[in-house]
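Subject: Probable endolytic peptidoglycan transglycosylase RlpA

B.,
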Amino acid sequence: MIETGKYNFKLVSLCLLFLLCTVVSHAQIKGEASYYADKFEGRKTASGQIYWHHLKTAAHRTLPFGTLVKVTNIRNKKAVVVVINDRGPFIEGRIIDLSKSAAREVGGLQQGVFEVKIAVLHNRDSLENRRNKKKDR
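Prediction pasted inline below.
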């Protein structure tokens, strides 16, 4: 009887963990966005990639490099999908720094700093886990 109880507890715990991860991964976060200054063109990012204005990339404090994020300008509802390849922003209240072309696409160049919501679409780590599971089959 005790063994069954332990098994049920573990099963329920795993289900709750799965649900929590699903909710968190689909959560939308609101805050301020800004974009890279021209002086960063051609410089290395924290991931080792070179920053180019024309690429749809962004900096985030904690998301893994390679994560795809949908960024939506709250004022005009324009959206862009970017790849996280750098760390930042390090200014209070800002949640993401966009490349210049990404900021242009959502209509943020004139404002400089603008309200956005971000949603994680795809995390590179989750893709690698799926690939590994397919290999194991």
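Residues 24 and 118 are 12 Å apart (CA to CA).

T.
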